[in-house]
């Protein structure tokens, strides 16, 4: 790498020296986001997508998530004679179940993916689903393990008196609330959707917290007796990995309701996995953990070992290798 900062990115990872050794955040972008904590407008995103497009010509490759400005950048690249290699490393893409929006979004996402050099997916299942459901060419897709987000924080773990759940994306709050209803254990749910959950009439053992800073979120997770993540069924990209991945790295017992955990959790060995949307199965799994401390301890110990595959440094190096490969192929194609 030689210390060259030759990759342009929209991803704020300034806390990590390895990431900063290669990646430069689009100048001014983070400051603009801080000035608008509720999020950039569509007009803002168009402006920043254009700025990313103009700035990118000075860099070896561009690394983005799937935020709107990166999608605008990908569209602009369609009109470029020599595209700058573009890696989309957070493709959190789903389609609506039916209706006129589905084919339009499918066409749009397929166009974006074709413009990019590679699209990173976080499960091998998506290597089949993205081509089949969205029409993304299989050779555009690369599987990498999702990474943890503990940022070097050393949280002291303990087996507290509460079950912890957190996060917002694709969460199945109905299944979670019904599975813990009147359970003889406190359940703490940290979410930005607290008002929506209140409409589900949770029982008195449920405590809702309307969002927390990430360090406090992780501290509460580290002090729980188990971490539960209930995800919606029928999704191409289910998500939730940052929460249960962090929990596993902390050595916590994880219980996940999802049908796409095979690359991260081995049921009964380093966590418990149940079908999504199944209240009875999720309740039974949680009751097993509460009734059997030895099982919970064993699952947590094994989870910590499994989570080593989610080391951020391994992920960053894989992204750098991918960017170098795309840049090399682009140069070879231009010179041929």
Short description:
The chain has helices spanning 17-20, 29-35, 42-56, 68-77, 101-115, 125-134, 173-179, 194-198, 214-222, 241-249, 279-291, 293-306, 312-335, and strands at 7-9, 23-25, 61-64, 86-88, 118-121, 141-143, 162-166, 186-191, 206-210, 226-230, 254-257, 272-274.
The number of helices is 13
The overall strand count is 12
| Strand residue content | 5-15%
Q: Strand sequence of the main sheet, in spatial order?
A: 2-1-3-4-5-6
From the N-terminal CA to the C-terminal CA, the straight-line distance is: 26 Å
Describe the structure in your own words.
- With 336 residues, the chain is α/β, with parallel strands linked by helices.
- It is 42% helix and 14% strand.
- The strands form two sheets. The protein has a six-stranded parallel beta sheet with strand order 2-1-3-4-5-6, with helices on both faces. A six-stranded parallel beta sheet has the order 9-8-7-10-11-12, with helices on both faces.
- The protein is globular, with a radius of gyration of 21 Å.
- The mean pLDDT is 93.
